[in-house]
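User: quick one, sequence for these C-alpha cells?
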C-alpha cells in the first residue's frame, strides 16, 4: 500500500515540475496546452496556496521568488521515502 501511495506522489511530483515549467511561459487560452495548464492548476493550487501563506516569497531586488513549489517537492520526496520504508 505504501508503494502505491509513493508512486502516486511520484506522479504528482512530475505534475508539479510540469506546472512550474508551464508557469514560465504564457500560454494562450486557444493553445492545446491550455487545457493541461488548467488541469495542473486545479490539482496543484489546493496544495500550493496554503504553502504560500506559510512560506513567504524571497525578495531578490525588484523580483520575488516563490519558494513554495520547492518546499512542496521536498515534502513530497520526504513522504515518498517514508512510505517506501514502511
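Assistant:
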Amino acid at each position: 500500500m505504501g508503494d502505491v501511495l509513493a508512486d502516486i506522489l511520484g506522479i504528482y511530483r512530475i505534475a508539479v515540475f510540469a506546472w512550474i515549467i508551464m508557469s514560465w511561459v504564457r500560454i494562450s487560452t486557444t493553445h492545446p496546452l491550455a487545457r493541461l495548464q488548467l488541469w495542473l492548476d486545479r490539482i496543484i493550487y489546493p496544495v500550493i496556496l496554503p504553502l504560500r501563506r506559510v512560506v513567504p516569497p524571497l525578495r531578490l531586488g525588484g523580483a520575488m521568488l516563490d519558494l513554495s513549489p520547492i518546499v512542496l517537492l521536498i515534502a513530497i520526496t520526504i513522504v515518498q521515502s517514508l512510505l517506501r520504508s514502511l
